[in-house]
Each structure stands twice: as structure tokens, then as C-alpha cells.
Specification:
- By secondary structure, the chain is α+β, with helices and mostly antiparallel strands.
- Strands 10, 11, 12, 13, 14, 15, 16, 17, 18, 19 and 20 form an eleven-stranded mixed sheet that branches. Strands 1, 5, 6, 8 and 9 form a five-stranded mixed sheet that branches. Strands 2, 3, 4 and 7 form a four-stranded antiparallel sheet that branches.
- Strand 12 and strand 13 form a beta hairpin.
- Helix 2 packs across helix 5.
Length: 372
């Protein structure tokens, strides 16, 4: 005879209740927020009890309104089910926006969050504004996610890439613009991709592989206009896993630096190179100062489920933030380095512009570029 304990029956009842109940989300922007909520639709979202947790599948559409007299370039929202539990929060960022004063714009939320079954009640989901970046590069928001930095980097990349495509249009006309966009689309299609798993600490390092662990030195792509020089770097490598990267860097600029992002290119046993990702580092470097970056992180590479054996690694300066909040990004000329050009991902703005060409053609793209 099959029997259920009282606890199991209660858990099933609570799970069924949550699966059927509305999410009752709260959008917490505050009275002085630069955005207002015009409408929200959470109808396709659902909750499911699983073990000791509740799984919340969010599928929502929110319409927001710009309350400021400046055009919006980027927005980041923080979505919370639980602030402490792993998997309890996420974020939504929109880059390459052009939202004028009093104009509305949509935000799609499609994510999965976790929340303990013994939560303290209240709204299952809260949406907060982490930040808004405007056309004059001013910022409003809590910045809990350091979204100002990310959105400022995207905007500077967007300005760089729009300027490049506009120069092509002015110098070579519509045919030249079309040729350049087709080259970008071909690069996006052919760019080598692998699966990268990143985590803090050690992953993919079984005890049997400890003897194979070796210290591998980075080589570096030099960018003449970069404010930081990477003097040396290495990581521990075992088959398809790289661990605990460390770098020695020097600030060659006349300005203090508080953050840098190091791009990481990996070469496999077949000689193929691919962009593994990047390593962000908070630091404080005075002009001319030296610093050491020691990341307690691991990356594990696979291609279609098969391990990608690491044979070599190359690093480059990807982004820099100065102490005054301004940022440095690579120029288009630096990105044309043959090794970097093969593997680098296009900016969100370049992807947006090339997608516009794919959908509407060269004339529509030209008109879009003339707006800026």
C-alpha cells in the first residue's frame, strides 16, 4: 500500500497552490525614478515547486516611459525572487536604445529564478531599476550591478561603430556600405565558437588530472593606444580546463585606473583559436603604477560535448575604466589585428545595424546612421 507522510502531503498542496497562484510581481522604481511603468503583462509566467525550492519561470512584457527630457541610450533592470539564494536574482539590459522624452519602449523578461519554499511571503518577484544611461552619458540608478560601467562601454562601442559605418557610407556610398555590412555578417557567421563554463574556484580538475596540471604562459596582443600594458600572465592548465589566471600589469597612462577587463583567446590542439571570454578585475593603479591581478576563477572548454584541449593562450586589454568614471575601448584599427579580427564578437550596436540591413536593406541602414 502506498502512503504519504503529512509533510509530503503538505508540500504537494503548497506546491500545487503556488503553481496555480498569480505571481503578484512588484515593480519598485521609486517616486523619483526616470522611468514610469505604462503596462505590464505576466500572463505566461508560472511557478513550480521542486524539492525545497520554487522555480519561477518569468515570461513578461513591460512597457516603460521615459520621464526625462534627455534621450535614453541603455537601461538595466534587476529582477529579484530572493536576494541571497543562488539563482534568486537576474538582470535585463537593453543597449543601443534611442528613446526620446515621453516616449514608450518595451522590455521583455524571459528568465528562470529560484526561491525557497519557506519564503517569507509577499511578492514572489520584484523588479527594480538598476540604472539608465542617457545620450549625454549621465546616469541615474542604484548601480548595484555596476550597470553604469557596462552601459557606458556599450554606448562608447556604439558610437565608435556608427562612426565607422557612417565614414564608409560617406566615402564609398551605398554600395560600399553594403559590402562592409556583408563582410561583418560573414565574420559573425564564421566566427569560431565553443562552449565555455566559468566558475569561481576550481572546476573540471579531477584528482587523476593533478599530475597533468601545468603552468602555461600567456602571449599578448599589443594595442598601442591601450592605457594598460599586460607585462606577464599565466594560468594552470589541465587538458581542457584553465585555472587561477594571474597577470602583472602597468598603467602607462597619465590617469588613475580602477578597473580593467582582459580578453582571453585560447588555441586548441588543432591550431584553431577562439575567444574564451574575458576576465574583469577591480584594481587601483596610479599613473605609471604596477599591479598584480590574481583571479580565483576557472574556465572549461568543450565543443559539442567533446573537450577542447588547450595548447596556448593569448591575452589583450579589452576595456579600461579610469578612476573618474570615463572608459577606454579598443579602436576599430586595433580590432582589425588579424588574430583578433577572426575571433572577436561584434558589439551589440554592430549586431543591431547588420540585423537592420538584413531585414530592411542598405537604404534603411543609411537612414538609421544619419539619425546620429
Amino acid at each position: 500500500m502506498y502512503m504519504l507522510t503529512k509533510f509530503a502531503v503538505a508540500a504537494m498542496a503548497v506546491g500545487a497552490l503556488w503553481a496555480q497562484s498569480p505571481l503578484d510581481p512588484r515593480i519598485e522604481f521609486g517616486a523619483d525614478a526616470p522611468l514610469a511603468v505604462v503596462s505590464s503583462n505576466w500572463g505566461e509566467s508560472k511557478t513550480t515547486a521542486r524539492g525545497g525550492a520554487m522555480v519561477i519561470d518569468l515570461k513578461s512584457s513591460i512597457v516603460l516611459k521615459n520621464l526625462q527630457n534627455k534621450r535614453i541610450r541603455a537601461v538595466t533592470l534587476l529582477v529579484l525572487a530572493q536576494d541571497v539564494t543562488p539563482g534568486g536574482k537576474g538582470s535585463i539590459s537593453l543597449a543601443s536604445l534611442d528613446v526620446g522624452p515621453k516616449e514608450n519602449f518595451p522590455v521583455k523578461i524571459d528568465m528562470r529564478l529560484l526561491r525557497p519554499l519557506d519564503g517569507n511571503g509577499g511578492s514572489l518577484v520584484r523588479v527594480r531599476l538598476d540604472g539608465v544611461l542617457f545620450e549625454d552619458l549621465s546616469f541615474l540608478g542604484d548601480n548595484r550591478l555596476n550597470s553604469r560601467r557596462s552601459m557606458l562601454l556599450w554606448e562608447m562601442e556604439a558610437r565608435r561603430d556608427r562612426k565607422y559605418f557612417k565614414s564608409v557610407l560617406e566615402a564609398r556610398g551605398l554600395d560600399g556600405l553594403q559590402k562592409e555590412v556583408l563582410t561583418s555578417l560573414q565574420h559573425q557567421a564564421e566566427r569560431p565558437k565553443v562552449d565555455v563554463q566559468m566558475a569561481r574556484g576550481l572546476i573540471g580538475m579531477p584528482a587523476t588530472a593533478a599530475a597533468e596540471n601545468r603552468q602555461v604562459q600567456f602571449s599578448f596582443l599589443r594595442m598601442p593606444d591601450a592605457p594598460i600594458d599586460i607585462m606577464a600572465g599565466s594560468a594552470k592548465v589541465a587538458v581542457n580546463s584553465a585555472h587561477m589566471p594571474e597577470f602583472t600589469v602597468r598603467n602607462k597612462s597619465s590617469r588613475a585606473v580602477r578597473f580593467m577587463d582582459i580578453g582571453w583567446i585560447v588555441k586548441d590542439s588543432g591550431g584553431r583559436e577562439f575567444l574564451a571570454g574575458s576576465l574583469p578585475a577591480d584594481l587601483m593603479l596610479s599613473p605609471g603604477g604596477m599591479g598584480h591581478i590574481d583571479q580565483k576563477a576557472s574556465l572549461k572548454f568543450s565543443d559539442g560535448g567533446s573537450p577542447v584541449t588547450i595548447q596556448g593562450m593569448t591575452g589583450f586589454v579589452n576595456h579600461v575604466e579610469y578612476a573618474d568614471g570615463e572608459v577606454w575601448i579598443p579602436s576599430r584599427a586595433s580590432l582589425e589585428d588579424p588574430r583578433l579580427a577572426r575571433v572577436a564578437a561584434p558589439s551589440p550596436e554592430e549586431q543591431r545595424l547588420t540585423d537592420l540591413y538584413r531585414r530592411k536593406g542598405a537604404k534603411a541602414l543609411a537612414e538609421e546612421l544619419k539619425k546620429f
